[in-house]
Every structure is written in C-alpha cells, then in structure tokens.
Amino acid sequence: MSDIHRDLEFLHASFQPVAETWLHICKDDLGIEMRVLETLRDEDRQVELKRAGKSQVKLGWHNVGLALDFACFDEKGVYDTDNHSGLYTKCGLVAEAMGGVWGGRWRMRDYGHWEWHEGFTLQQFLDGGKKGVV
C-alpha cells in the first residue's frame, strides 16, 4: 500500500498558492466543512487505484502534483458522497473561477476532484513544453 499525500506542500510549486487560496475561500469565506483527501500520487498508488477501478488512467495530474481530491461534509458533519448538498458545486465553481478543471463537469462525475494546468495537456507538461510551469 502506497502513502497517501494530503498536504498541499506535496503539490507542484505553481499549484500550491492557488490551492491554498481555493481552500481558504471554500472553508473560511463560504463556510464549507471540507478537507483535502489526496494531492500528489506516486506511480504505485496510481496503479492501485486503476486496478481497483477508481481511476481510468495510468498517469494523471495527481502524479505531477497538479490535482487534488477533497471531501465535503453537510451541516450535520456527514460525508457528502454524491453532491446532494451542493457543496461540491460551490467548491468546483471556485476552482473553475481560478482557472481549474472540476471533475463534477465530467461525464463520469468526480465531484471531489479538481486539477490546475492552465489549458495544457499532461503530455505537454511531461515534455517540458509549458514555460514557467515546468
């Protein structure tokens, strides 16, 4: 079993301040009870998740520190797994306003996920083709 990284310090240096601001807005300004579940993933963890059917990719934005997963809790402190409270939508809209991609918009919804890569592909990132980020 691989380690699960939850701290924002494990995110890519370009994403850390964005994620910190997002977390502050969601928690402090909007009053949403939430926490970060996972930031950076190593390859072993990604393989585990793919085998378990919890990820569809061999390599993704988590593997380069440009994605995070989070959980929201309703007013009773109950973990909201399907956005019935609308809290994930609020957090997702904040992420999108900051230039992020929110998993709640995908065909296979991933409400508690967002990634920040400013319009470039993972391959461009891996190839070092994005100035100022890599």
TrEMBL record:
<feature type="domain" description="Peptidase M15C">
    <location>
        <begin position="59"/>
        <end position="116"/>
    </location>
</feature>
<protein>
    <recommendedName>
        <fullName>Peptidase M15C domain-containing protein</fullName>
    </recommendedName>
</protein>
<dbReference type="InterPro" id="IPR039561">
    <property type="entry name" value="Peptidase_M15C"/>
</dbReference>
<dbReference type="GO" id="GO:0008233">
    <property type="term" value="F:peptidase activity"/>
</dbReference>
<dbReference type="Pfam" id="PF13539">
    <property type="entry name" value="Peptidase_M15_4"/>
</dbReference>
<dbReference type="InterPro" id="IPR009045">
    <property type="entry name" value="Zn_M74/Hedgehog-like"/>
</dbReference>
